[in-house]
From TrEMBL:
<keyword id="KW-0963">Cytoplasm</keyword>
<comment type="subunit">
    <text>Homooctamer; tetramer of dimers.</text>
</comment>
<comment type="pathway">
    <text>Cofactor biosynthesis; pyridoxine 5'-phosphate biosynthesis; pyridoxine 5'-phosphate from D-erythrose 4-phosphate: step 5/5.</text>
</comment>
<feature type="binding site">
    <location>
        <position position="7"/>
    </location>
    <ligand>
        <name>3-amino-2-oxopropyl phosphate</name>
    </ligand>
</feature>
<dbReference type="InterPro" id="IPR004569">
    <property type="entry name" value="PyrdxlP_synth_PdxJ"/>
</dbReference>
<dbReference type="Pfam" id="PF03740">
    <property type="entry name" value="PdxJ"/>
</dbReference>
<feature type="binding site">
    <location>
        <position position="101"/>
    </location>
    <ligand>
        <name>1-deoxy-D-xylulose 5-phosphate</name>
    </ligand>
</feature>
<dbReference type="GO" id="GO:0033856">
    <property type="term" value="F:pyridoxine 5'-phosphate synthase activity"/>
</dbReference>
<feature type="site" description="Transition state stabilizer">
    <location>
        <position position="152"/>
    </location>
</feature>
<feature type="active site" description="Proton acceptor">
    <location>
        <position position="70"/>
    </location>
</feature>
<feature type="active site" description="Proton acceptor">
    <location>
        <position position="43"/>
    </location>
</feature>
<feature type="binding site">
    <location>
        <position position="18"/>
    </location>
    <ligand>
        <name>3-amino-2-oxopropyl phosphate</name>
    </ligand>
</feature>
<comment type="function">
    <text>Catalyzes the complicated ring closure reaction between the two acyclic compounds 1-deoxy-D-xylulose-5-phosphate (DXP) and 3-amino-2-oxopropyl phosphate (1-amino-acetone-3-phosphate or AAP) to form pyridoxine 5'-phosphate (PNP) and inorganic phosphate.</text>
</comment>
<keyword id="KW-0664">Pyridoxine biosynthesis</keyword>
<dbReference type="InterPro" id="IPR036130">
    <property type="entry name" value="Pyridoxine-5'_phos_synth"/>
</dbReference>
<keyword id="KW-0808">Transferase</keyword>
<protein>
    <recommendedName>
        <fullName>Pyridoxine 5'-phosphate synthase</fullName>
        <ecNumber>2.6.99.2</ecNumber>
    </recommendedName>
</protein>
Length: 239
């Protein structure tokens, strides 16, 4: 079974645009769970442009499915936030400070010492650690050497290549996923997954543990309604 974790960053973007509390991120998280999502993902960034650090504390109080916090652990504040909240999973992402969104995975070989130390800190607090990587078997193997529990494959290149040639676009992801299976890592995937490309990814890599989806899902909900949309994504994950 592949779990759907809904990334609610975009709900916070909308809320912040007016400075009030509409839409309410806690309500949306609880509604996503009620509609069948098996997890909630947030990606607080240092500028708090969408999810605020306080949102993480508030969500931790109410989320009953898997809570996944994504972010760059080179920020001390991020590490403290995660340790204070003890989510089910932390996903380590090497975000550049002013990048509009995440745009690459870790070099798990070049950053081996830093990642190994950080992963040990999170794991000793009982938090599962997933490392965001490009679809490169060497980076997957590197994550294993650093002590990660899972990798999250950065799926933007798959989404970008899907319409031109989906077999070609998915191939590096199958190789990376095979490596994860071979070395005993759990497998997540995310970034730009959508109703167009999700089912083929699932068919190609049936052992995916989890996908986290935000931008497309929240955009679809404008037209299709949140309940219907969450359920449509869940159906795409059925084989
Ligand atoms: C790690 C990842 O791919 C997502 O978390 C993505 O970066 C969403 O973040 P934004 O909503 O800030 O674009
Ligand atoms: N980890 C990926 C994620 O949480 C959502 O990415 P996106 O669907 O907003 O591109």
């Amino acid at each position: 079974m592949t779990r759907l974790s809904v990334n609610i960053n975009k709900i916070a973007t909308l809320r912040n645009s007016r400075g009030g509390d509409n839409p309410n991120v806690l309500k949306v998280a609880l509604d996503c769970e009620r509609f069948g999502a098996q997890g909630i993902t947030v990606h607080p960034r240092p500028d708090e442009r969408h999810i605020r650090y306080q949102d993480v504390f508030d969500l931790k109080e109410v989320v009953t499915t898997e809570f996944n916090i994504e972010g760059n652990p080179s920020e001390k504040k991020f590490v403290e936030l995660v340790l204070a909240n003890k989510p089910d999973q932390v996903t380590l992402v090497p975000d550049a400070l002013h990048a509009i969104t995440s745009n690459a995975g870790w070099d798990t070989i070049g950053n081996r010492i830093e990642l190994t130390d950080l992963i040990a800190v999170f794991k000793s607090a009982g938090i599962r650690v997933s490392v965001f990587v490009d679809p490169d078997p060497r980076m997957v193997e590197g994550a294993k050497i650093c002590g990660a529990d899972r990798v999250e494959l950065y799926t933007e290149p798959y989404a970008a290549g899907y319409f031109e040639n989906r077999q070609k676009a998915v191939l590096p992801f199958i190789h990376a996923a095979d490596k994860a299976k071979e070395v005993g890592l759990g497998l997540n995937a995310g970034h730009d997954l959508s109703l167009d490309n999700l089912h083929f990814l699932k068919q190609s890599i049936p052992w995916l543990d989890e996908v986290s989806i935000g931008h497309a899902l929240i955009s679809d909900a404008l037209y299709l309604g949140l309940e219907n949309t969450v359920q449509m994504y869940l159906r795409e994950l059925e084989l």
